[in-house]
Every structure is written in C-alpha cells, then in structure tokens.
C-alpha cells in the first residue's frame, strides 16, 4: 500500500537558514526540496510574530520554563547569588561600622585565602593578622596595616566582601521567591494555550493568504527560503514535537495527489521483498494503487514456471543462504532469492523436472508424488501449456478488475462505464463458461446468462461509454475500442505461452546435458565418473545461468506490460528519499 504523507513547509530568512538542513537531517524522515519567495517588511513582521507565538506555545506545552527569557534570567541571577554567598560565607559576620571607622583612621585591611600547609606562624608576630576560618585545607585571614605599609605575603589578595552575610542570604531568598513566582505565572499562562493556538493558526493563515495574493511588484528587500518536505503521517506527533524545538516557522497539511508527494510503500513481509521490482518500473502516483501485493505472488509463480526445475530451486535456495552471509550488492536481496528458490522447487516438482530428469517417468519416484504432477494433455494440447494460458487469462482478468475499481475510485463511475462493460463481458463470460463446463449450469441457463452478460456489456461499451455524448459517436468509439481490446488481449494472452516454453526448454536442455554426460559411462564405470561429473556440472551451470536470466526477464515483462497495461497502472511517482544525517 501507499503510505499516507504529510506536507510540511518551512519558511526561513536567508540569513537564518544556515544549519537548518543539518538539524532537519538528524530527524531522518523528511524528503525535502527548496524554493524562494520575496519578502517585504510586512511579511517579515508577520513571520516574526508567528514564529514568536509558535515558540511560546511549544514552551508552555512542554513546561520547559528555562526557555522563558525572564525565568532564565532569574535563574541565572539566583545561581550568581548562590556563588556570591559561597564566597562570602567563610568571612562570617563583619561589623561594617567599625571596619569603616578604622579605614577612615588610616587602617587598611588585606584579605587572603591561602593553602593551610603554606601558612607561616611567624606572620602572626610580624603583622596584625586574624585567622577568620580554617577548613578544607584552606585558611581565610585578614591582615590590618597602616596606610602606606606594604604587606609582603607571597599570595594574591582576595576580593574584599562588599555585602554583608545577611544581605547575601536575603538576596538568595528573594530570588528563589521570584523564580517560584515566575513559575506560577507560567503555569497559569498554560491555560491560554488554546487561545494562543487559535491565534497562531490565524497568523499562519494570514501569512499564507498574503503570499498567495502578493504580486511581483513588491520590492524585495530579502528573500525567504521555503523548504517543502514530506514525511509519513504516522510520524506526525513525534516529528512536530521536534520541529517545535527547532524554533522555525512551519506549516503542515495532509498531502494530496496535486502535491505529487514522494511515494513510500508499506507492505507486509512477503510483498516487501518485491518492492524493488515495482521500483524498477516506476513508483505509483499518490492517488494510484500499489501493485506490489499483486506483483509479488505472480512474479514468484511466473519465475518458478520459467525455471521449471526443482533441482535449480534448491540451487537458488543455496545461493540465497550464501548471500545472507555477505554484505553489499545483492546481499540485501537474499530473502527474495531464497523465496524464488522455494517457489521454483515446489513448482518444479509439480512440473515433474529435477536437474533435467523427468520425474513422471522415473521409477524411483513414489506414485503419490507423480499424482501431484501436471502431465499429459487437455483437449489435445499439452497440459502445462494449457496451464500457462489459464494463468495468463486469470492474470489479465484480474488486471481488468483492478483497473475498473481503481479508475472508479480516482475518476468516478461515469468515467469508467466502458471499463466496467469490458470487465462484465470478459470476466462475466469466463465465470459463466466455467460454471457451464463444470456442469453447474445447464445449457438453457448458460444461454440466458451469456445473453444477459452480453447485453449489459454492450450497453456499457457502445451506448453509455461516455454519458452525455451523441449515441452514434459512442457506438463508433465503442467499435474502435473493441478492435483494440480484441487484438490486444489475444496477443497478451498468447504471451503467457512463454511460461510453458521457457520451462520446457530449460528441462529439455538439462536432459540433453544429462544424456551427454551419461554417454561417457560404460557398463561398469570407474574413472568415467570424472568426465560424467565435469560434463554434467558445466552443462547444468550454463543451463542454470540462462534459466535464471530468462526467468527474471520474462516474468517482469508479463507483469510490466501485460498486467500493468491492462490494469491502467502509470508508475510515474517519485521515490521517498529522506535526508539522513
């Protein structure tokens, strides 16, 4: 299936875009492109207001008060006050009045913080020295000396305490109360989030309208860089939370087919292995359908029928397991190779071939296994060829049904009446014919059912193929459409004979190499086993390589041309390619 995408628009001034892509790439989910828009004074102001609101809403929703400028400033002041107290507290209480009086009388106080082990007791006799505090290997001390007298201690003086201890403690209490009060204010402000969001949406809408209505006559003083990106809708909640933290202005809306968003496929484990094949043809557009779940089983079946040899299936399984141990290149496709090997093994058993040996004729094969094989003829034709044609008819019929359903969803029933007419004719006719052959319907009921199918189909194909148009024109268009459908469908169905032909050719070539190898053996082989092994090994290696090439190319052709063409698949989408850091 095609994963739903959300469209994001990121709007930045040229001078603000530096580093934006690097931050965005860290998210790992955004497929992005860039364009520019002119910006004038008014749009710059509108953008600034919207960005401010967006950041405010993100701050309040997350409760990250440290991102609030006032709260952050108060916290910084509180931290500085606590640091100042830590420096002031060891000096204890100082009588500022007495200190000031002594300084006026010519006494100068010198403050020191020194390592305890470097304190010299002789200083106490040399200077008027007072030890204030002694702890943690440090000494806080004050030296009083007359003005003009040099205190010759081998240490740099510490800063003089400029505020009292009581004042330092009071400042911390005051700032703590201010921080708490600001937190209460922000908590109350959270009640305004709905109103802020409404205003933010209004600002976004106003800015969108302004750019939509702006003309090229406005003088561009600068340019806006507009990044348009797409990300899976399932990531919206997580992604938008991260975008808010970037502080950029962004808009989002569900992606539509008109946006032509990149395509990311989302399939279950089995189908996911075949997404690489869908990519080889082309990704679907956004309102199309993902063909991978239908391509996967049919490609596996077609590949297995083209290989047609159970022994080669075992070789493919072995190749897949070897690739699993490797890195890079084809190693990533080891699951696909292994699945193709498993399919080839079972289909090869049903077709009755094992390394070129016809299992249906081998005496060592149990009868119950032979009963599972498709052999013989049906209505005079090879049973395996009939099987290939039947598979082709079913494949094309499924494509027509898919086309009718998808086109009805995309364009409406009125535009697809002709398509439904062909579905009714072909699929309905096949169903009625199948019931008749199975004996479920008798001849009279079959005739009535076929007439009903024909009438309904004819009305859709020739009369109502374009409602409102001249009926004669509709009939002419229906005849031309009939010519194209009949000739095209016949060629498409016959294309499926290659499923039988390639399997038959591979089996016959493998049998030929077996015959060549066995010709080297005598009645009682001894050394003759060596040429037998060499011929068989080289022959089957060449046959295996050619069979793999044909089994890969031709099933792709049947899916890409026959199925995709009849299902109306376009494959013109672009691959989702997020930027990843």
Outline:
With 581 residues, this protein is an alpha+beta fold. The chain has 3 domains: 5-69 and 185-259, no CATH class; 95-160, no CATH class; 269-411 and 495-567, no CATH class.
Polypeptide structure, described:
By secondary structure, the chain is α+β, with helices and mostly antiparallel strands. It has 3 domains: 5-69 and 185-259, no CATH class; 95-160, no CATH class; 269-411 and 495-567, no CATH class. Helix content is 58%, strand content 12%. It contains 20 helices and 11 strands. The chain has helices spanning 20-25, 41-62, 69-88, 96-104, 123-126, 165-189, 193-213, 236-246, 269-272, 275-281, 292-307, 310-324, 334-351, 367-370, 383-411, 417-437, 443-463, 471-494, 497-518, 529-567; strands at residues 5-13, 31-39, 107-115, 128-135, 138-146, 222-232, 249-254, 353-354, 357-358, 377-378, 381-382. The strands form 4 sheets. Strands 2-6-1-7 form a 4-stranded antiparallel sheet, with helices on both faces. A 3-stranded antiparallel sheet has the order 3-5-4. Strand 4 and strand 5 (138-146) form a beta hairpin. The longest helix has 39 residues, at 529-567. The radius of gyration is 42 Å and the shape is elongated. The two termini are 27 Å apart.
Beta-strand level of the residues, as a percent range? 5-15%
The structural domain count equals 3
Q: Quick one: biggest sheet?
A: 4 strands, antiparallel
Structural class: alpha+beta
């Amino acid at each position: 299936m095609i994963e739903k995408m959300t469209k994001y628009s990121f709007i930045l001034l040229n001078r603000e875009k530096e580093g934006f892509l690097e931050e965005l790439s860290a998210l790992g989910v955004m497929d992005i492109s860039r364009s520019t828009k002119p910006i004038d004074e008014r749009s710059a102001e509108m953008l600034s207001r919207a960005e401010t609101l967006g950041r405010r809403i993100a701050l309040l929703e997350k409760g990250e008060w440290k991102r609030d400028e006032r709260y952050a400033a108060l916290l910084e002041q509180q931290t500085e006050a606590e640091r100042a107290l830590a420096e002031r507290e060891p000096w204890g209480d100082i009588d500022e009045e007495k200190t000031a009086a002594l300084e006026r009388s010519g006494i100068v106080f010198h403050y020191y913080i020194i390592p305890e082990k470097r304190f010299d007791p002789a200083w106490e006799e040399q200077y008027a020295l007072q030890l204030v505090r002694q702890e943690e290997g440090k000494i806080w001390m004050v030296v009083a000396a007359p003005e003009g007298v040099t205190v010759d201690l081998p240490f740099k003086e510490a800063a003089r305490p400029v505020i009292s201890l009581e004042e330092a403690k009071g400042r911390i209490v005051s700032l703590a109360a201010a921080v708490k009060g600001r937190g209460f204010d922000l908590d109350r402000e959270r009640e305004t989030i709905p109103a802020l969001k409404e205003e933010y949406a209004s600002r976004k809408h106003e800015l969108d309208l302004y750019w939509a209505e702006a003309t090229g006559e406005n003088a561009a003083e600068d340019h806006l860089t507009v990044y348009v990106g797409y990300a899976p809708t399932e990531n919206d909640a997580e992604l938008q939370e991260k975008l808010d933290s970037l502080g950029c202005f962004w808009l989002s809306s569900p992606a539509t087919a008109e946006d032509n968003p990149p395509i990311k496929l989302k399939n279950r484990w089995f189908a996911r292995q075949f997404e690489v094949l869908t990519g080889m043809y082309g990704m679907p557009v956004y309102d199309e359908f993902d063909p991978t779940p239908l391509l996967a089983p049919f490609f596996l079946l077609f590949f297995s029928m083209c290989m047609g040899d159970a022994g080669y299936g075992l070789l493919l399984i072995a190749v897949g397991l070897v690739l699993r141990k490797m890195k890079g290149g084809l190693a990533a496709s080891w699951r696909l190779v292994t699945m193709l090997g498993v399919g080839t093994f079972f289909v090869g058993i049903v077709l009755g071939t094992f390394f070129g040996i016809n299992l249906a004729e081998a005496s060592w094969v149990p009868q119950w296994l032979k009963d599972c094989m498709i052999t013989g003829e049906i209505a005079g034709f090879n049973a395996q060829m009939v099987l290939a044609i039947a598979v082709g008819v079913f494949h094309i019929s499924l494509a027509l049904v898919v086309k009718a359903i998808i086109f009805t969803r995309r364009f409406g029933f009125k535009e697809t009446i002709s398509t439904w007419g062909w579905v009714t004719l072909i699929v309905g006719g096949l169903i009625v014919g199948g019931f008749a052959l199975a004996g479920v319907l008798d001849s009279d009921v079959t005739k009535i059912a076929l007439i009903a199918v024909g009438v309904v189909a004819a009305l859709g194909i020739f009369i109502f193929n374009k409602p409102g148009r001249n009926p004669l024109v509709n009939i002419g268009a229906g005849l031309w459409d009939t010519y194209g459908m009949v000739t095209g469908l016949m060629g498409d169905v016959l294309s499926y004979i290659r499923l039988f032909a390639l399997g038959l050719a591979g089996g016959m070539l493998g049998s030929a190499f077996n015959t060549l190898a066995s010709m080297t053996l005598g009645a009682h082989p001894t050394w003759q086993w060596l040429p037998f092994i060499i011929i068989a090994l080289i022959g089957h290696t060449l046959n295996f390589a050619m069979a793999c090439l044909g089994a890969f190319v031709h099933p792709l052709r049947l899916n890409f041309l026959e199925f995709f063409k009849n299902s109306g698949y376009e494959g013109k989408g672009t691959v989702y390619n997020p930027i990843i850091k």
